[in-house]
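Exercise (ungraded).
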Amino acid sequence: MAAGQRGYEACTGCSLCLLACPVWRATRDIRLTPHGRARALQCGATADELAASIDACTLCGACEPACPQDIGLVAMITGLRAELARHAPARVASVRDRMNDRMAARFAGSAAEIRLLPDRALAADPVLLGRVARLFGGDGKVSVAADDGSDIALALEAGAEISEARLERFLVPLRGARRLIVGDGMLVRALRGWLPAVRIESLGVAATCTAAVRDRLRASDLYVIEPRAYHADQERLVKYYDALRLALGCSMNLDLQRLAIPTTAGCLPAALGRSSVDVRDQARWILEGREFARIVVEDLNDIAAYTAVTDKPVVHLAQLI
Amino acid sequence: MDIPVIEPGVIPPDHVAPDALQGIRRQQTNPKRWDGAGWTEFAEVLRSAGIEVVEQPSLRGTFATDAGGTAYGMPHGVVIARSAVQVADLLRAAQAHRVPVTARGGGLTTEGESVAFGGVLLDMTGMSRVLAIDREGLTVRTEAGIFWHSLAEVLRRQNLDYLSAPLNLTSSVGGTLGVGGIDVNSARLGCSADQAISLQVVTPTGEIVECSDTQNPELFQRVILGYGQFGVITEATLKVRPYTPLHLHYLYYTSLRTAIEDLQLLDRNDASDYSGILTMMDKVVNLLVAFDSDAREAAFMTAWRARLRGHGEAAVALRMAAYYALHPWRLGEALFLYERRRKLFPEFRRAEYTRGGVMFDRTVVFSRAVWKFWGGRQMVIPDLAASEEKFVEAVLRGNAVCRKYFRHYTLYCVGIKLREDHRAHYELSCVPPDARERAYGCEFEPMIGDQVIARDRLQSFKNEIYDIGVELGTSYYRFGGMMKGYVRRVFGDALVDKHLAHKRRADPAMILNRDVIF
């Protein structure tokens, strides 16, 4: 839990977390929400009793900046998932196996000041990854992590234990960076805690700071912010994206609370096929009533979600250049 | 006053308000838990009808209290509302088995009105989808468990907005229509309950009925401002309007009386679209004035601004500095006000919501601030709802009570335009019978923060505020639940008995929202 954050004991039941929760929107079942979990925990519920609720969370993180009591709701979920994993290790066996298979991390061109840590989907697309790297200066200025840490991101999401050795192998090459650009929103939050001396930015923020991307964004675009990185630093980023929106005139996937509405496409419950949120329904809700000619996404996982519900072009940031 | 002999279970005389609590049974401030007779058979009937009944203690505990955090009760089971038919099945079975049913929306009551002391807790947020928007006719049909904010989210995509709703993101439509619903535009547009065009209601005996001013008007009258006694609102058709951001002005006063007089001057003359008073103690009184358009703002600046006695922020800061320089023993209060201002004001001026004096999404701004700065484990908000003529005295006397009990508190005052054709709706409601064109409400909210204060002390505070209402002949917004000891004192036996007879006819087993009013 981050400094200044409080535990579930502080929940007053105001329900503000519900308003931004995609699981609540899909189910209208308070038991599956941060409010429901916190209140149940206050009444003595165990992690096992709340397993269905804990598993349902997409970890988009929107509830956390919405909470007026500053409860660490993301840490609450990951902590509860870790507790479940301790009680039933089989839940995370496949995640553990993946981590054990990882090779030692290394960087190509590790002298570069900027390190790019792509998420799993971006790492799997070398052409797009090359474009992203060129966006930040290309060879010599930016180095791309050979170890994308996707197993660590998955472990964080699943509540699986991350061995010190694995974490150290992942972090060692990153420590020398002056600036670290991170594609996976789950890792952005964690890396800020692990590497406090390094300037860590989400791919979306870093990309939209470049003239190449800004020049190609249009007022008729719907710009889709990756929710996890945004909500991990919402107090600051709400101002950044608001200024960007004003400067460019585009619309964004923000609700009236200025929280990013997720498709939930890349989350663990969706990957396991057990999500209570219909990704297409979320995409339709994001698009409802909005006028746009093109969708620009920060997260590659969102492309399929939007393509399924609109005929308008859907592109990743890097495809703008 | 006929004061009965003190007996076990009755709160003894209170040293702060000598006769505030005499005669009010403790069980009336925290109802006796239903004994559970026949619960198992009842739950079985529901399950056989395909209705999920949650009985796991920790999950029932989710609903153990309301926003007030002083009344605690556990339902025997929770049912998440899914359809009017399901609610009807539930209520029919509840009548047959005499099982109490407590309907709950956002759970933002403060007197335990949405707390189930046994029986079924019916979570209406399960029915919270917008069903249809008529852009031409400017209406929306929605399930009634929806939060006003969720409704606003959907309406905004069509560049529409609701007319008036509580400045709280998680009030539900159904709950609000049952009690009133006050916004900073209520002086002009009336309370939220007056925005309802028609309702789908499930009666306590399980009939699904559509009602409006012209269709089943008696039921409509009972349910609107009916404190949930005469049916569960499952759907509502509401008026909506084109969305407009607010052109916002704050005027500052050091006198409550002057600020209230100016508020009423504005309201009488329709000089603003939004008006309300929010104070920091009684030292800095903030009159909010806002407009939907440049034209209305310009008209105000030309015709009314100079007639108001409020100051700008700098001027009031100078006055406060002079006051505290002459009253150095009140330095603690000055530091509190300074600190409050330092933290609170930026929240109202966040760049993503306010640009060039124009505020977008006022409910988000105010509600977030309310929960952040006033929210806590306990929340008591006694209020007085008075006619225009009695309002100043009611507020000043209530303010004196606040000062006596709490170091820090806030007052929130607004006007409420009344509809003559809805007079029948206002019987036994927050609208005082002597109010004509407009009523006024003031909420007295101690800033408790993370403190936990003894319930009896909070009850004494509330009682002393409500005693002012008895004396002045005002009404209250929150007269149910723990405050229901005041119902007969305020409304009189004849009116209460009339409504009680209605209730007994409509709800023979007296199962729906038992102990809230009756």
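Further reading is listed at the end of the chapter. For now, observe: Chain A touches chain B at residues 12-16, 18-19, 28-31, 35-36, 39-46, 49-50, 68-69, 238-239, 242, 255-258, 288-290 (CB under 8 Å). Strands of chain A lie at 114-117, 142-144, 179-182, 199-202, 221-224, 251-252, 294-297, 314-316.
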